[in-house]
């Protein structure tokens, strides 16, 4: 089908004069229409027609085309290999054959595409549907010219060479060639074997070309045929080159629909330069991201984020408002709304999800995204996932302990206990401060975990915090503190413990608490503590059960101390007139003796 083209901006064959140059405003309008056309084609390749993105581009394209055709009756687009032209001037370019829209039409012989007045949204939708259908077919099967010829649109025309159209019309008819035997495997192998006569013809052609060139052949008209043949041979691809080329081609053919989806979204953001359309770019990104997350394609969602970060840097350098749009989108990704969508998507199909891709995506949005892992851990996830989450947090804590601590909540007691343990084992300078902050928890169990964590810190700051807790109103807390105190790291602590034990109401405490405090004193192994315990044992009991408990706890403390001075005090106590005290001292002496003969009793040997 051939159509006449206008002569605007080109030599007029009737007058020989050149018409005035095309109106710049008109060119910009056509350029804008083609950009929207390209976006619409890209969108329909990956979205259904009822998707918001497709509807938006289709409405935009229909509005702009309708207005243009009302004023100009038709829009004729010239088609070159990688360009669309209008009145001979390039207005759209894409040089990537795999996705180039001009190349999509050009490869099948189309020379121009014409839209006529009367074209409505429904016909545009049908045109996009045809393009989508052909684009999804293998290259050797898809043919846009043939598809348009079959649909016979009322207001969409095209130009292709007559002989090309005839070959389409007569396709399928029997001919002599149809009876020839063709080896399809060799035909589509991507390799052409050059026969000797073909090679000679190439050499002869090269000779003729050089003879006609301005520099010409040598004066005698002869050419070194051997050097020409060498030149031709060197221009042919070697086996290694062919293999490399085949690898590249196959890699492009294997690009997944999801990756193509990401590439299209990024392309839309990158190419869109209409300021009135900027407001919709955020929604485009948001919907595209939701599409990927909803289908649990975390690796491609991560690819989208990475490409947007690179694009943001480009736009920032040029001062483009699109840099702010991308920044807003990246902030949205760590909002409660986006993170809830991510968690719900994971829970919906957790059995079939690639854990590796999921954790990589979580890392890209850290530390805000960690709360998803925290919720999964606390909600009773299966053991293997809980183990992986815990390992992840242990590693993450080395890099960002503050982010990890922010996950601590009374509503997450299981994870909080694990985080307290991670903090207590860390070498971070702020570890003591973090552990102290956990003491404000409303849950006593978490406060106890914080006390145990502070007990692992062999420094005066941690021990001084614990000393203050000896006055806590809860007995279990006081006992945990006494069990965890390291008096060697806090010199003033011995005196503090002695003051507590010397108080008049000390005898009223439970036997467990008395034993905890006196054993703490014994672990100090100081002369001050040893002297205090001697004086305590010398005091008369006077038939007071509570005081007897205190004395017996003091005996246990001397056993814990185990120093030569403590042994001598126990030997003195063994001779006590109080039978229970004497028996207790004797038992403690035997226990100390066993420890001295075997410093690592069964079950307590050093690892």
What do you see in this structure?
The chain is mostly helical. Among the domains are: 24-170, no CATH class; 275-365, no CATH class; 489-598, Alpha Horseshoe (Leucine-rich Repeat Variant). The protein is built from 30 helices and five strands. It has a five-stranded antiparallel β-sheet. The longest helix is centred in the first third of the chain and has 23 residues, at 24-46. The termini are far apart.
Summarize the entry for a quick read.
With 607 residues, the protein is mainly alpha-helical.
Question: Keywords for this structure?
Answer:
Leucine-rich Repeat Variant; five-stranded antiparallel β-sheet; mainly alpha; 30 helices; 607 residues
Main β-sheet: number of strands, strand sense, barrel status? Answer: 5 strands, antiparallel
Estimated helix fraction? 55-70%
- Give the overall form: rod-shaped
Which secondary-structure class do the elements indicate? mainly alpha
Strand content: under 5%
* Overall average residue pLDDT: 80
* Total strands: 5
Poorly predicted runs are: 1-18, 172-180, 602-607
Rg, alpha carbons? 42 Å
Distance between the termini: 89 Å
What's the arrangement of strands in the largest beta sheet?
3-2-1-4-5
Number of helical elements: 30
